[in-house]
Structures are given as structure tokens and as C-alpha cells.
Specification:
Largest sheet: 5 strands, antiparallel
Number of helices: 10
Number of domains: 2
Structural class: alpha+beta
Strand order of the largest sheet: 3-2-15-16-17
């Protein structure tokens, strides 16, 4: 990719156990709890729901999945952290995060290989309990076993790799997994979702964004389908960058958050923006509330001059949020972002991706890590 390997083991990132536990694991678990608190507040307010950019006709369905206690499975928090100072939340993909296979199976295999080759000491470790946590989560959610359909868009090897990893974890947890591409799902006369053979789908893991699903005709059947969705629809509030100004509104000054505002709020420069003025001295990042892999993201300096911008403008039409610019750390000309995995409600592991540019995107390299000391 760009003439370089996506998986790069020419180097690795070394962490101490203290850094993992105190700077990444515990703050990520706390941030997730703050996100859950934010969801509970947002669904009770029409004003706040309107800020999330989701179709109003599906607000009741979204709220119903939250009030009904539909459990979440997984998510990935993207953090800026360079070994000093506090980790800062950049965004939270709580709906369709990828790089799961790399973070769990392949990264752990790398660690074992390096120990066997005596490149790393025998007591080297890795923050990587995500696979075991996934298996346990499936077993907890479906203790009697069940059939879960796993779906993704056709002809996308990265998405299929994530879905296949999920399906193997489900199988190890006692669940019967079946795969079909999302274009093969149909609807019965009474509004139930069907597989390619016409059998009703009771449980569906979909690697397909809620913001897309809710704007398609099939969404009209969600409430009556009797289909339990993974992730549940309330996750549409967390994988949405509109959650960032919500988190700041509800937790202003939290040390692991960056000040963030909706674009119109930032332009109005009200009291909350003024209180955060110092945090914007390094610049600001403008992000669409719906965006994937860094697309349509711009980094501006304090005067509004452009520092960096994505070449992918596919999400330009969406409403924007403005987040204080927190420069990523730099190691040998590359900028890493930590992806902290949340399984259930707990941070269980991480993976790192780095890019020579300032905006992490879909072809950024995956770099393994280990714990020593």
C-alpha cells in the first residue's frame, strides 16, 4: 500500500506495564462509561438527537434499543498518546471498527515468534486480551447457543476479514455462525429479514454503518423485524463524531478529552468556546460527523490556515464538528494512533497504526507492540 507493507514488523512500539494500565486501559474504560452516560442523555432530548444527524423517523427505534437494554459487543477508541502526558480521545468507532484480526491473532503470533527467535525476552508481554474477551462476550450474550448471521458488503476483503474473525470468536463461544453478504438479505411479507434461502434472521452482526442503514428503505422494517442487531442502533450515537462535542459538554475539562464543539457553536464563540480558547492555540481539526478512515478531515492552524487535509472528500456534505488539535507523537517520521479495544464495557487490548501524514487513513500501516518493564 503506497509502496509499503500494511503489516510492518521492521519496528515495534515498546510500552511499560504502568503505561498500559494507567494511561491507556483505565482511561479507555472510563471514557466508554462516559459515552454510555452521554447516550442516556441524548436519547431523552429531541434537541440533542437533532444534532446527531440521524433520520428523525428512526429516533424511537434507536431509543428503544437503549431503553430495552440491547447490549453492545465491541468498539475501538482512537487515542493520541506518545508515552508522556495523558492519552487524548480522538474519536470512537463503536459500530464498525476494523483491524480486529491484526490486533488479536496476528499481533499475538508476532509476539510469540519474536520470543521464540530471542529478539524479545521470554517475559515480554502484550496488551492483548481482546480475543478471549470476545469469546466470553458471545458466550455471555448467548449462553444457550444460537445461530447468528454475520454480514458485510460483498467483495471487500478487509471487511470480510473482520467479520470472519468475529464469527470464529462466536463459534468458540458456543454460537453457530453463518455468513452472507448484505445484498443477499431480503424481507418477508410480514416485515422480517430473511437469508438467501428464505429463513428468518433472528440475530445479525452487520459490518455496515448505522448512518447508512438508517437512510435506506430496509430501515423501515427494523422495528417490526424481530431481528436483534449487533451492534444495536444506539451505537449510532457513539460511532458518530457528534458524540465528541457531547462528551465535552457533559464532561468539560476531563483530562482525556479534547475540547470539541459543533461548527456553528465554535463560530459563535460562546462562553464554553472561550473557556477552551487555550486548547485551540495549536489549531483545530474539522471533522464531518459521519466520516471513515480520515476522509474529509482538515487540520487548520490557529489563524485558519490549512496544515493538512484528506484527499478523500466523500463526506464533505455532512455537518461538521471542530476539535482542538492535539498533534500526534512522531517517531522516525511516522505518527502512531492507538486503537484501544472495548469489549462489552471494558478495555481489553490495543493495536497501533501509523502514517507519515498527520491524518490516519485506511492504508496506514499496522505496527505491533509489546510490554517490557
Amino acid at each position: 500500500m503506497y509502496g509499503e507493507p500494511y503489516w510492518n514488523e521492521a519496528r515495534a512500539y515498546r510500552f511499560t506495564l504502568r503505561e498500559i494500565e494507567e494511561d491507556i486501559e483505565d482511561p479507555s474504560t472510563e471514557l466508554h462509561q462516559m459515552c454510555l452516560d452521554a447516550v442516556g442523555r441524548i436519547i431523552e432530548s429531541q434537541e440533542l438527537m437533532a444534532r446527531m444527524g440521524l433520520p428523525e423517523k428512526h429516533w424511537d427505534y434507536i431509543a428503544g434499543t437503549w431503553r430495552g437494554g440491547d447490549p453492545g459487543l465491541y468498539g475501538r477508541m482512537d487515542l493520541a498518546y506518545g508515552g508522556t502526558g495523558l492519552a487524548k480521545l480522538l474519536e470512537y468507532n463503536a459500530d464498525t471498527p476494523t483491524s480486529l484480526f491484526e490486533s488479536t491473532s496476528f499481533q499475538w503470533q508476532w509476539l510469540e515468534d519474536q520470543i521464540t527467535a530471542k529478539v524479545l525476552p521470554r517475559d515480554a508481554d502484550q496488551f492483548n486480551g481482546t480475543w478471549e474477551a470476545l469469546v466470553a462476550r458471545f458466550a455471555e450474550m448467548w449462553p444457550g447457543g444460537d445461530t447468528i448471521y454475520f454480514t458485510s458488503v460483498p467483495e471487500n476483503s478487509e471487511d470480510y476479514g473482520t467479520v470472519e474473525t468475529m464469527a470464529w470468536a462466536a463459534k468458540e463461544g458456543g454460537v453457530n455462525p453463518l455468513y452472507l453478504t448484505i445484498d443477499k438479505i431480503g424481507v418477508s411479507d410480514d416485515g422480517r429479514f430473511l437469508d438467501a434461502d428464505g429463513y428468518p434472521i433472528r440475530f445479525l452482526f452487520k459490518l455496515y454503518p448505522w448512518e447508512n442503514m438508517l437512510n435506506e428503505p430496509f430501515a423501515d422494517y427494523l422495528a417490526q423485524s424481530g431481528c436483534f442487531m449487533l451492534e444495536p442502533a444506539w451505537k449510532a450515537l457513539l460511532s458518530n463524531k457528534a458524540i465528541l462535542p457531547m462528551l465535552w459538554r457533559f464532561n468539560e475539562g476531563h483530562p482525556n478529552l479534547l475540547p470539541a464543539f459543533f461548527e456553528d457553536e465554535f463560530a459563535e464563540a460562546g462562553p464554553a468556546v472561550q473557556r477552551a480558547e487555550a486548547a485551540f492555540a495549536a489549531g483545530r481539526v474539522v471533522k464531518p460527523i459521519f466520516s471513515r478512515e480520515g476522509a474529509s478531515v482538515r487540520i487548520l492552524d490557529a489563524a485558519g490556515g490549512e496544515i493538512a487535509a484528506s484527499g478523500d472528500h466523500g463526506y464533505d456534505e455532512h455537518p461538521k464538528i471542530v476539535q482542538a488539535y492535539h498533534p500526534l507523537p512522531e517517531f522516525d517520521g511516522s505518527h502512531p494512533v492507538i486503537g484501544a479495544w472495548i469489549i462489552g464495557d471494558t478495555c481489553t487490548g490495543m493495536g497501533l497504526r501509523e502514517d507519515r501524514g498527520l491524518i490516519t487513513q485506511n492504508l496506514s500501516q499496522f505496527i505491533p507492540h509489546y510490554i517490557e518493564g
